[in-house]
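Sat 14:20. Reprocessing the chain from the morning session after the first attempt stalled halfway. Input below, unchanged.
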Amino acid sequence: MAFKRAALVASYATLAAGLCATSLAASGPYDDLPQAIVLTGTVRDFQAKELAGGHPDFQRQPTSGFGHYVGMVQSELDSDGKPVFASTGYKVSSNWRDSGSRNIMPPQNYVSAMQGDINGSKSSSQGGALTTAANFSQWFRDVPGVNASQPLAITLRREDNSNLYVFDDTTDDTYKTKGGFFPVNGALYGNYASTNKNFHFTYELSTEFVYQHGAGQLFTFIGDDDVWVFIDDKLVIDIGGVHSKVTQTIDLDRLSWLQDGQQYSLKFFFAERHTTQSNFRIETTMFLKNIAMPATAGLAD
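Finished this time. Tokens:
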């Protein structure tokens, strides 16, 4: 009897240890993080260049051909917090990469190099990825008769057992049945006749985050077409041009002026400019905070 009692006690002890281990496993290091981050920005719709009132940069084929272009925007935002035209772009022939083979922006004097970085290459002459500074200034501003705008929210969802937040048009409930990132299908100026989808628009987001030195804070975009990301109003991702999917990553520890524990802005600018595909994926280990965007203009005459 004593033997049976001892065996029973040992069995309960084993069960309790297992439950304790399970409880500890379920209480992971990321469980206090929210499951999702909702960011609200502004989408602006444009007409294709061949249509009445159309914009010359939308449905445009770059003069040097479709592809990834860099150097289209200046390295700092203007006083309105908008990107500034720098050139018609330099076509990339091979991407700059880090030691993990992630694509990165071409070197800038305010972005620290890291061991293992690999140089890419680009054309030495401008490639006509867009038209003029005046036309570009309309991409992310409400301009009556040129574009129409409305608010647009996206939801970044945290992946299980991680601090990685992702928005992906192929898995998001709103977009996964649309065949791509098409937030204004049937809205604003309406769909492009040959595709019955609204391909010609821009999207602007403004967010904030707290920098944590050495915490592995990353921001990655994968998609098409143009994307520029600015941290503290400085360019850190440069994916210009009309192209298929392109990816680029910024590791915040490269930004030597950031101070640990301080809050900074992240501003995101996207353009979908040509038919065929609209791909959009954000991955980040940063906890982004929403910033209210200004009122939108709606459909302009």
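Helices lie at 2-26, 133-136.
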